[in-house]
Amino acid sequence: xxxxxxxxxxxxxxxxxxxxxxxxxxxxxxxxxxxxxxxxxxxxxxxxxxxxxxxxxxxxxxxxxxxxxxxxxxxxxxxxxxxxxxxxxxxxxxxxxxxxxxxxxxxxxxxxxxxxxxxxxxxxxxxxxxxxxxxxxxxxxxxxxxxxxxxxxxxxxxxxxxxxxxxxxxxxxxxxxxxxxxxxxxxxxxxxxxxxxxxxxxxxxxxxxxxxxxxxxxxxxxxxxxxxxxxxxxxxxxxxxxxxxxxxxxxxxxxxxxxxxxxxxxxxxxxxxxxxxxxxxxxxxxxxxxxxxxxxxxxxxxxxxxxxxxxxxxxxxxxxxxxxxxxxxxxxxxxxxxxxxxxxxxxxxxxxxxxxxxxxxxxxxxxxxxxxxxxxxxxxxxxxxxxxxxxxxxxxxxxxxxxxxxxxxxxxxxxxxxxxxxxxxxxxxxxxxxxxxxxxxxxxxxxxxxxxxxxxxxxxxxxxxxxxxxxxxxxxxxxxxxxxxxxxxxxxxxxxxxxxxxxxxxxxxxxxxxxxxxxxxxxxxxxxxxxxxxxxxxxxxxxxxxxxxxxxxxxxxxxxxxxxxxxxxxxxxxxxxxxxxxxxxxxxxxxxxxxxxxxxxxxxxxxxxxxxxxxxxxxxxxxxxxxxxxxxxxxxxxxxxxxxxxxxxxxxxxxxxxxxxxxxxxxxxxxxxxxxxxxxxxxxxxxxxxxxxxxxxxxxxxxxxxxxxxxxxxxxxxxxxxxxxxxxxxxxxxxxxxxxxxxxxxxxxxxxxxxxxxxxxxxxxxxxxxxxxxxxxxxxxxxxxxxxxxxxxxxxxxxxxxxxxxxxxxxxxxxxxxxxxxxxxxxxxxxxxxxxxxxxxxxxxxxxxxxxxxxxxxxxxxxxxxxxxxxxxxxxxxxxxxxxxxxxxxxxxxxxxxxxxxxxxxxxxxxxxxxxxxxxxxxxxxxxxxxxxxxxxxxxxxxxxxxxxxxxxxxxxxxxxxxxxxxxxxxxxxxxxxxxxxxxxxxxxxxxxxxxxxxxxxxxxxxxxxxxxxxxxxxxxxxxxxxxxxxxxxxxxxxxxxxxxxxxxxxxxxxxxxxxxxxxxxxxxxxxxxxxxxxxxxxxxxxxxxxxxxxxxxxxxxx
Length: 1103
Fold this sequence. Notes:
One of its GO terms (molecular function) is magnesium ion binding. Its EC number is 7.6.2.1. This protein is an alpha/beta fold and 1103 residues long. The strands form six sheets. Strands 7-26-25-24-8-20-23-22-21 form a nine-stranded mixed beta sheet, sandwiched between helices. It has a nine-stranded antiparallel beta sheet with strand order 10-9-19-18-17-16-15-14-13, with helices on both faces. Strands 1-4 form a two-stranded parallel sheet.
């Protein structure tokens, strides 16, 4: 990445070339760019806007008009010594660290002056981990709070507790959190290493390649989700020459200690003393416990074998540990369609040729045997034998023309692998499926150059001269190719959406009505349709059109519009041949998953780029919509009122409501375009009646849209861009107090995934960008049911139960100090021993509640999925809210009153068996502490729904640890060693040998727990919840589940709804093929006799 620079300047790249190459910078001659250099035309595509506001504002501040801004992140430098020729050092890090490529950045320290392209997502290294991690942890208010308490405890005048009572828990929290962060960062290091060590990830300046005309393939799946290979070339010159990223009372009572301090000053000190004493209401152990629980819950998701996709060896992955409980509170799910609900694997199923339909499955017959075709793909399956017979007979000329069109009219690239087998690179799964179908029926695409296409037609090889290639784009929705046949005839082949093809058919075209009928039938079966047609062109007509095409191609103005206009002139008076029908199957279990989530009162919105009819039919096929629903479309939304219930309706808004959201961006882009052209925006622009007049009306329209949509049972948004998907999610978050989840599989879903409260990525056919941007990832949509109804619900219930109990036990523990202060002259003296306070939340009560937060479950996973209504309490926030918090507060107050005043009353004017009165402070502290430990550990036992050996061991072990440690630190031996630290010498043994004190402890524990037992019994008996009812009959349901046979594999039914064209791929390779520089003529190579395999690289984008 360094060296001498080339004497001649590197030519400028256009904006489009920069946007397209991103990862690869290619030297090329300045040429007319078919995409234009001024960006998209807002008059043609007025609302397709993926830029953020910041990006637009930054663009408005750019340099003078007419100068394209192209930021290239990484450059490789070109070496061109006069004698030795050129050389390139790509990704050679050792080479870039040579002394001649170093620059000073601080004093005498140097670093490479060239930026590397290594991906870095980790936070720390060996030197920065400790300081950076501590800095990040002390940025949290909780840690700073406890650090401030520790500093207060160090001050002798105000401290009421030893400093170690706060230091030990704080160090534990910081240590455990640091370990967790270290583990996470090590995982990021490993992932970075994996990505950085992959092949073909370098930023590179292409000078030449081993392919003809220095052609190379670039994969951008990690950037935009597109898995098709982009084609780039180096300069012809380099190719030829080389060929090689609060106040106290003003008076306080105190014992005279010989210090001349005023009452107000002593009151001030007591105030801070109580701040320290009462800090255990919200102890630092709460935060570390929550982190441990969240980490454990995330691991349970990762280890769930029922969410493991065996076919691709892909387990579920929780990429965050902070959102698990929110998984049990989801109200809205926003889903992509292609690759999320469907498999994004296309299969040629049916076709109609000259009015005759083929592809119906014939009973009692096997799939078609293509052994007669040496080029056939072994994976291709077809049911209708009659089509093969029709083709092989050679009598049906329309059928031969049909498959000839499929083999010629495309932008597929072909190459040979190491076994001399044909490998196709298709711009979209649809196009790959069509070329593969033609291949199996005897019309095999063999090779292409910049001006010829060679195909094998029923074992007869023919070469056609390609005169023009009219490529597909999202506005045209079609593509055409003009060919000169070997006999001199000139013919145009065209394929595209029925909506655009039928507008361009000749009045004399046959088969229009019968083909439309077949399209309706294919649509009822939710197949993706495509019309095929042709037109014969005279030499004079072609020559006239070719001159116009050449002029439009080199136009420096709006080249795209000029080309489209020229294309319109030739794509008319077409003759219909037939139509194809491709199936994009739903993923397994999608309808059942959507049905279960709907029963859990989760609303599912599908956001797709497909047109309305296609999106609607997918809604029916996945049971998101049904025939009993009343469906409202986007253009009718403004007329719909709330005079009727909408809970049984569906809504399919088109792009129009979302366009209003982006109206301001449209105006920004128009200003930007005019600025680049050196013009000023018009002073007054006529107001569009369909657009909002002001911000208030704009907001009202948004509120109306959200209210309308949220009243519906299902919503499908079609024709939406990636930015509009994110805007829909943000609207629901803005106007509805609900937890949202977005799920998608491609780079075009990243905005939506990041906008929602929780993002889920599916590792499918469109790269890993969605997964890398998500919070949770897995391989199939059906796993979403288990993620929410099982893991999400359990996580929410466990966290709520943990928090309720944790606040209760700390209120019960801490408020004893408050009651004791009435008898200690408000001196801020503590009610317990120092070490009991230190170890209470760390060792005596932590393990049982931690296990409840990790393992507890009211019902098992099967019943959680069988009864989706169990999910409702999470959506309603019924298990932890202000009401639950105050219940825990009053429960803690009651328990603290019992724990203090019963032992206090028992110690008042009492005498022990030996004639001594054990009514001292230390004995009282021991009895209160023992009562408290027994009470809170028995309370968590009452809270536990799912008992295991571990839970039982944790409760018994916590009680045993308390008594064991208490006897140890009250022993004489440890007092001799640390006389100032351990001052309760012999208290435990002296106190607990008094039987009436044991009776006091038992009485205290009994009175504390009795109301809880009574309330629980009455609530579950008189006012049982859905969960209580299921728990009551849990064994019955579990036995039913065990006896139930395994269900048969799901077979998706056919919905009787209209489907539309879905020719969904981005612009193809026409510019590359037709430029005359894309492919070098190759010598004729004899094609192998064994049947060749096909590898298809699908395209990520939808229309």
